Amino acid sequence: MKNKFKILGLAALCSLSLVACASKKEEEQIKGETIYVSPNGGVDAAGTKESPKNFMIAAANAKPGDTILMLGGSYESSSRLGLSQNGSYNGYITVKPASSEDRVIFDFSSMIFASNNLGIQLYGDYWLF
Predict the structure, then answer these.
(1) Considering the domain boundaries, does residue 29 fall inside one?
(2) Which of the residues 7, 71, 82, 113 could staple to 38 if both were Cys, CB 3.0 to 4.6 A apart?
């Protein structure tokens, strides 16, 4: 009889643990800034649609949860773009066109051919393109 109560008590304890785990609030997503960039964006620009930043400046200063919106055009570079900032599991750094009409092109055609010139190299974690 004592074993029966032990088993029932253990079962009750396990079910309470499951309820507590299931009701635990998931960690909220990090909401970062929305930063606009353009092919001729400014180094000191505000990062708004009216005053877009340079892509590399925006990427180099990106923080978890930030979204980099790329205005249409050809983003030309003669050197490798290294992205080393980290997002987080609940705050990806997102890079995408500003709208479905914006055609974004990364143009590395002026880059000298060499083994270390690889266009974009992503060193950071939690980026979403």
Answers:
(1) no
(2) 71
Residue-wise pLDDT tens for the chain (129 aa)? Answer: 555 444 444 444 444 344 444 334 456 888 999 999 999 999 999 999 999 999 999 999 999 999 999 999 999 998 888 899 999 999 999 999 999 999 999 998 888 877 677 788 999 999 999
CA of 3: how far to CAs of 8, 11, 59, 109, in Å? Answer: 9, 12, 62, 76
In this structure, is residue 59 part of a structural domain?
yes
d(CA 55, CA 39): 7
Domain of 121 in residue numbering reads as: 34-128
**H helices within the chain, ranges in order?**
2-23, 55-60
Q: Is residue 2 part of a domain?
A: no
| CA proximity to 37, closest of 50, 28, 27, 24 | 50
